[in-house]
Amino acid sequence: MVVRVGVIGCGWFGSAHARVYRQIGEAELVAVMDKDPVAARRLGELYHINYYTSIEEMFRKEELDAVSVVVTPQKLFETSMKVIEHGASLLVEKPVVVSRDELSKFVNAVKRSDVIFMPGFIELFNLAVVKAKELMDRGEIGEILALWSRRVGRTPKKKLGWKIGVSLDLAVHEVYVYNRLMGGRPNHIASFTAKVLNEGGEGEDLAIFIMEYGRVVGSIETNWLTPVGIRELLISGETGTLIVNYVNQAVEVNKGDVSVIPKYRKKETLLSELEYFVTHVKMGERPDIGIEMTKEVLGTLFDGLESSIPLGK
Hints:
Strand order of the largest sheet: 14-13-12-11-7-10-9-8-15
Number of domains: 2
Structural class: alpha/beta
CATH superfamily of the largest domain: Dihydrodipicolinate Reductase, domain 2
Oligomer: single chain
Strand content: 25-35%
Number of strands: 15
């Protein structure tokens, strides 16, 4: 069985989904959709496939097994619910939803349906994260004491019309990585937030999260203020540290004066993610990276935001 897939949202990352699906032997990219006719036509003509400006028309004319939903965050819930109504499996890009109310309705809709759902938690497929988890599990740095990460850059998504803050844009990645590394959600989470940039829009530009996983403390720093993009995670243990470079897919193991970077064959993270999705659609099995994980991760993030202390007050 070849999984017939479509992509909803023809921006830069939707275009990446389309490109990668064409590299997967068990998938066939058959259609793309975007409300912007220029964007839809550009991507459709690039790959010589049908393109649409309406979800309803696309599903009426195409036999789709699955789609990627890659639209602006405030449109993710509405778009995804339409896909579920049409009975297609779906991978929904982060943050999947933007509120607790949307989360509750979306979880219920997925559970009532027969569709295969997967969140776009792409860093779980980053080989640096995979290797760091393997090293932790075999005790390479002893008992884990603390996690610390920075995910920052000067690219406010408000300029693109995104109606969310930096937490749902960037911090969500670190929350799902932390939960995966620690085997579940934190016992407690709190945050400090600030709206610094005078650019209108909604949401915070800076957020700091503090999380407690038993004896392990995690801290996450995110902002849209830093001139250069930084994506790094430090895992401290009793006998050493692991430094994860998300961009280079590298893990550095530090023990005393000795530093080692294990070598392994790297692979495009999006390809690994979409292969995982297509495989589960083909098998008709709901993945572990699915609705329960989405509920846990976003529940954690919303808990942190609801306990937020605005900086400067």
